[in-house]
Amino acid sequence: MKYILTFFYLSFFYLLSAQEAFFSKQAIYNLVYQPDSLDVGSSKNIHMELLMNNEFSFFQTLRKRQQDSVLCYHNSQSNSFSRGGIVMRLPSKLNYVVKKSSDSISVFDSAFGTDINGKEPIYHYTETPLNWELKEDTLHYADFICQKAELFYGGRKWIAWFTSDIPISDGPYKFNGLPGLIVKISDDKNHWNFELVSFKDVSVRHTINFQNWYVVQKKSKKQLFDDRRTFQNSLITQLENQGVNKAEPEYVKIKSSWAHMLEKDNNWIELVY
Fold first, then answer.
1. What are the phi and psi torsion angles at 125 (to 5°)?
2. What percent of the chain shows pLDDT beyond 70?
3. What is the CB-side half-sphere exposure of residue 225 using CA atoms within 13 A?
4. Helix or strand run (H / E) with residue 121
5. Beta strand pairing call for 214-218 and 120-127
6. Residue 195 in contact with residue 183, Cβ under 8 Å?
């Protein structure tokens, strides 16, 4: 597949891949999430990083920034199984980078990893400002006095606790726009839960590591989620189109295992997009 990038996106790609940004603040969040809404035992956790300066912030997994190869990260984070030399792998749902400023939220995400040409399409889309509802409730959390805020977003009700002790209007994932740093946020079912682990001054120079196998494309969020879903649901069909003998016991096991994996992958962070 050939991709045509306009001059704007070529320039934007260059800025992302060739220029470093300096960050003076770092917040580390522990994300605990439940991939299967019906199975508490499916819960996983991972550390996420929010880097901030006076103009914008980057949010991604801590591991993603620390590793030189994003492709390596993608492979190591994906759920997978292997039978008879065939590896089946769910695309990572945590392979995104969120760039936020006071008036914009930009997301760069991979729908399904590398294609048959060795290229990895990166979907770029923007979000509208979030519509928070401030509450009077307060609590003490991690030595901070926090205030409650609620938000309906992505098919979920989110409950956030932010502190004006840190007057930074930011937080994990796409969440920002409150009068203080978000120290804790979860959906009302507690399936996705971000909690602040540390906040400190740093001196970090960082480049979004878009390698030469990446192809940045401006697409909608709906296209990203739809393409990811289509890719997952069509893998068995693709396998069959390659001439796999459907009568082979090994193929039957693969098909059954993949169907089970898809069934349990039912609780993405955004249910409505």
1. -145, 160
2. 80
3. 14
4. strand 120-127
5. parallel
6. yes
- What's the whole-model pTM score? 0.83
Could you tell me the pLDDT band of residue 90, with boundaries at 50, 70 and 90?
confident
Q: Which helix (H) or strand (E) holds 11?
A: helix 7-18
Number of C-beta neighbours around residue 179 at 10 A: 14
DSSP state of 40: G
The partner residues of 187 in beta bridges, in order of sequence, read: 158
Cβ neighbour number for residue 13 with a 10 Å cutoff: 18
Give the pLDDT confidence of 164-180 residue by residue, as tens digits.
999 999 999 999 999 99
> Tokens 């890719």, residue?
231
Domain boundaries, the chain: 7-127+188-264
**Pick from 183, 184, 187, 151: nearest CA to 166:** 183
CA-to-CA distance for 148 and 141, rounded, in angstroms?
12
Cα–Cα nearest to 112, from 71, 159, 146: 71
pLDDT in tens, 49-63: 999 999 999 999 998
Question: What is the rounded CA–CA span in Å between residue 196 and residue 142?
Answer: 8
Q: Which residue has 């296209």 as its token pair?
A: 223
